[in-house]
Amino acid sequence: MHVIIESDCTKALRLVRNLDCVYYNFSLQNPNPNFTSRPPKKPSSLLELWDFFISRLNLSVSRAGTYSFSMTDHRNTNGQTANAAASASGSIYSINLENFSKRLKALYSHWNENKSELWGSSDVIAVATPPPSEDLRYLKSSALNIWLLGYEFPETIMVFTRKQIHFLCSQKKASLLDVVKKSAKEAVGVDVVMHVKAKTDDGTALMDAIFQSIRAQYKGSGDAPLFGYIAREEPEGKLLETWAEKLKSSNFQLSDVTNGLSDLFALKDKEEHMNVKKAAYLSYNVMNNIVVPRLETTIDEEKKITHATLMDETEKAIVNPQLAKVKLKPENVDICYPPIFQSGGEFDLRPSAASNEENLYYDSASVILCAVGARYNSYCSNIARTFLIDPTPLQSKAYEVLLKAHDAAIGMLKPGNRTSAVYQAALSIVEKEAPDLVPNLTKSAGTGIGLEFRESGLNLNAKNERMVKAGMVFNVSLGFQNLQCESKNPKNRNFSLLLADTVIVGEQNTEVVTGKTSKAVKDVAYSFNEDDEEEDKYVKGETNGSEPFMSKTVLRSDNHEISKEELRRQHQAELARQKNEETARRLAGGPGAGDNRTGSKTSTDLIAYKNVNDLPPPRDFMIQIDQKNEAVLLPIYGSMVPFHVATIRTVSSQQDTNRNCFIRIIFNVPGTPFSSHDPLKNQGAIYLKEVSFRSKDPRHISEVVQQIKTLRRHVVARESEKAERATLVTQEKLQLAGNRFKPIRLPELWIRPVFGGRGRKIPGTLEAHVNGFRYSTTRADERVDVMYGNIKHAFFQPAEKEMITLLHFHLHNHIMVGNKKTKDVQFYVEVMDVVQTLGGAKRSAYDPDEIEEEQRERDRKNKINMDFQNFVNRVNDLWGQPQFSGLDLEFDQPLRELGFHGVPYKASAFIVPTSSCLVELIENPFLVVTLSEIEIVNLERVGLGQKNFDMTIVFKDFKRDVLRIDSIPSTSLDGIKEWLDTTDLKYYESRLNLNWRQILKTITDDPQSFIENGGWEFLNLEASDSDSEDEEESDQGYEPSDIEPESESEDDDSDSASLVESEDEEEEDSEEESEEEKGKTWEELEREASNADREKGNESDSEEDRRRRKMKAFGKSRAPSSSAIPKRSKLRR
């Protein structure tokens, strides 16, 4: 059937409207009692109807511009990509013959081994698949189709015997199934017989032919064969109803094979596990990226939204994975059930629950249940979470118990355990922690999951004694139903709790494939009402227990709200306690005292010539350079004495006034700085420290000096590279992608550090292979391999305000890039050319050429950023595969909004935090600090009116030098404090720079004393300030009340002025004072003298009286002069 896209859209949509009967005329009663049927929402416009039509019919576009219908409805199709040529019909569908053979063998093997126990002793197995339906249902007949053939074949009857497999179906399906004949014969030795039914035929004659063939096979056995069928599936459609009637009237004995099929589907292979993992990946990403943000926004902004609307939005994200930031093909995914959202006291923990039209209820003490199930290639996954809004103690306690019970149930899913033990483990936790909640616990801890949402034979209840085996997949779902709390509000009086995860049982460990959606209390319990709680307490105290009322005029400060700074201070105090305990435990294991600096390595013995005969024949008694043996031959006392060039420290030449040239050679000898000679070795040897030669040929002298320097430079570089390579860790060999997959490529990249050599630098290509990256240029010797296992951190930094877009890898172990040893490798592209206009004329801002050039630069930058982003996304998908799960790799992106300027090395740079590091990736040398390796951070030179401060990072490895970042603007102080606090890093503040090398040496020398003295608390500036303030307050005596506040503030201002002033300012001040003294009257001078006399007082006066008089005199002297105002002001008494 084809729908031609007409030129007139209205005609095409008219054709779509004529197909309403296909999608809207279906029964509202679902034959499967486990799930409710839900009609799709009626489209309100032609475009919505067209989109609905395209998505629901699973159409595929051909080159001729037609849409071809899929064989089945979207909800029941597998959606697998065709991987082999189809039959002669030219259909887009194909059957994976390798899977078909493997699973057909498994079917017959399982049937033979468990014939009496699970297959009802059946001799024949008949499976009839009903017509397609829009209803959400799970049938074992459909599951067998998908499991065995890769697709669901509606209105098809399959009959399995020992010698034959019969298919009764239409001509189109028969042509698709024709390819399995050879595979079936090779796999289990059976013949495939096709019975093609015409459209007008009811199939009765074909059914009789099948029965006749079966009777012929068992003719000599005496008894009629036992016919196995799926007893729980009611026949649907004319064909299946006719088949059921013929089967009952054929005098065959019937038996149920449901248990056999359930057990057959229970053990899943790697391909099935991958389908489950992809389904789970979609489920938890929908929960993390769609459901949780939507709930948080709705509650935070106090919006109204119905449960049904949330369900529709979530379902839309599942069938369109891009909305949840998931790169899965939409035609391969579907929902397991309509997403469930419940709140407001009405809860149903069954999968058949529906989201009603009530608004989401999120007042205090409310509970919200969310459940999401996604399918990939018809394999199911499930996840459910409970969110608590300002929970009561009962709700918090119940959730904590449920969380422990859920984890205990998952922990019991190990090969060899019985399924009843899984539920018993959860029940034991509830009986121990909260026995009063046992009646409310669900009677099952979940079921098996796969092609069916609930695999009936794998119920995790107290009665099922089935063994757990490696390869099984479970939906572990546990909850408390109908709990009651004390409340007058019916919407939060009754509540339920639910947790569900999809779990794969492995040989060694159990994998929770939906575990990336947190269920920890701190992540599901929300507190939006802290201020209201404080107000309630305050009002209740005022009204003495009467009904509380809320006043709209209450200020935030009246509620005694804890400031942000106070919360940060409390958190830092807790971090200090934890950090001191952690440091004490680490130091108790072994102090490891000593400095981290090791002595310089001794060089190996240098041999220029093994014996005298190897010396080159002397030509003239002149200095000779032997390039081959790396030696310098010097004429000494009539003989040519060889010296290896590595023994020469420096060589220089100079010329005197008599035109004589001198060459001076200084050797490395023991005792000189940076000497590699061991003074204890060859103690009786005589060393030549220096030698000079004179010559009248300046050109020869200059050539000798140049040759020695060049040879020495070459030898030193070679030995240095050799020493660095000797310390390298042996890397695994790169496995090229080859035929496994096409490597992920990113071309035209530059590398830092650059390759050596004097040739022109050329860009290269970065490729992602099986176990690592390879960067290579067109030159054969310019190639670098970076193994995934050696990558510690990977960063992607797009160009925003920078000139480059880059990928940066920080490694565990050093590698060689050219002849450089490095732990940081960077690949980058310049997003725009650095061009400087040489012309002096200024160009207009409205110059069309200028505007066009800027637009080209923006387009180029956006394209480069997008290319890098696509590369990063594809590599992240590669790293997300199970074989890389132990590496925990993912590209991290710097958070520019948290960045700050500072000087980590010699030049100022913009330093940016990431989720796990502190980095600076633009300027060389690069800065990469792993946050988990930081012990504490000390902010130095803070306060005292400083414009800048320094940051010192102390690492957990005390043998490692601290990292100093200097000259950070003080405007960044609060942001850095907030970032350090949110990342749980303990920081201290000090007014001076500290000698950290000595501090760390003291700690490592005597760790016990460090621990006993409070650990890092000696850096706590606030504690020391509070102690000093207490001492100052105790020393202060009586302060007079008649001193004007202006005098104190003016004095403070004068004290806070700069302590260093220029000589000109001092001279100006002295001139002003002299002018004031000249302008004073006799009356003023007499008053000052009397004040001075009273200030001195008698010798018998107490110190307190003297200070009081001094303060009084100080206050009078600060009074305005008579020349300023006509009447003298009086001091207040």
UniProtKB/TrEMBL annotation:
Residues 623-775 form the FACT complex subunit SPT16 middle domain. Residues 900-990 form the Histone chaperone RTT106/FACT complex subunit SPT16-like middle domain. This is FACT complex subunit. Residues 574-602, 1023-1133 are annotated as: Disordered. Residues 1024-1076 have a biased composition (Acidic residues). It comes from Hibiscus sabdariffa (roselle). Residues 95-261 form the FACT complex subunit SPT16 N-terminal lobe domain. SUPFAM superfamilies: Creatinase/aminopeptidase (SSF55920). Belongs to the peptidase M24 family. SPT16 subfamily. SMART domains: FACT-Spt16_Nlob, Rtt106, SPT16. Residues 574-585, 1077-1099 have a biased composition (Basic and acidic residues).
